[in-house]
Each structure stands twice: as C-alpha cells, then as structure tokens.
Amino acid sequence: GLSVWDLPEDQKLFKDIDPFEVHEYSELNHLSLISALLGPVPKELLDKGTRTDLFYKSDGQFKGTTIAPLNFTFENSLRNIHNEDKRMFIEFVQRMIKWHLDERSTAKELLQDPWLYADFDDD
User: Fold this and answer.
1) I need a labelling partner for 119 at 20 to 30 A (CA). Which of 2, 21, 63, 82 fits?
2) Domain annotation covers residue 106
3) What's the CA gap between 110 and 90, in Å, rounded?
4) Is 121 part of a structural domain of the chain?
5) Which tens digits make up the pLDDT trace of 79-110?
C-alpha cells in the first residue's frame, strides 16, 4: 500500500521518519504516524508484541511524546490527486493498509477495484 502511495506523490507518506529525510529514526514517531492514519493499535496486537512495553502503557496509550500532527490524514497527505480521483485512490490504498492482515484485501480483490479502471481527470 505504501509503495502505491508513493507513485503519484513526490514525497513519502511517512517522510517524517524516512532515514533519507531525518537524522535519527524514531520507532515511537513511526508508530504514532501509523496510528494517526489507522487508529489505535488493537489490544490483541499489543498483547502479542514482544516490545510493546517499550512504546505503550498498559492501557494502550503511547509512552512519551509523539510527533503525529492532528491534521495527519490520508486526505491531507495526498497533494497530487484531487476530487473523486483522490477519494477513490485513498479508498484503494486503505484496502491494503490495515492493522490486521486478514482485513487487508488480496491482490485478486484489489484487481477489481474501481480506482484501477477510473477515467482520471487531467489535473
């Protein structure tokens, strides 16, 4: 999903943690950006994590300060696609980016997505 995101954009979705863009990578910042897009990490995933206690409190909240801005959304991060094309593209990407693997669309399902067959605007 993130590779598809990079195609129309001239910057990565997670540019704030890209090792080519920042001096020091932060796992906590990366997790905060993902959570800003997908919502809180499901408890069952936190319970399975071997390093959960490094980043999360027992109630599932982040430890420390996070960098995810309040306006960090798929909609605000996509600058080169507009209107209906934008909505369709975001829906396509969201089918691939989910906390739970079993909730992600398969490649076969994605091949049927309307975005792949849309008649795009020229802007």
Assistant:
1) 2
2) yes
3) 13
4) no
5) 899 999 999 999 999 999 999 999 999 999 99
Q: Which of 100, 95, 94 is nearest to 74 (CA)?
A: 94
Identify the CATH number of the domain in which residue 27 sits: 1.10.510.10
The per-residue DSSP string of 50-117 comes to SSHHHHB-TTSPBSS-----TT-SHHHH--S--HHHHHHHHHHHHTT--SSGGGSPPHHHHTT-GGGG
Q: Which structural domain range is residue 80 located in? A: 2-116
21-52 pLDDT, tens digit each: 666 778 888 888 899 899 999 999 999 999 99
Q: Give pTM, 2 decimals.
A: 0.82
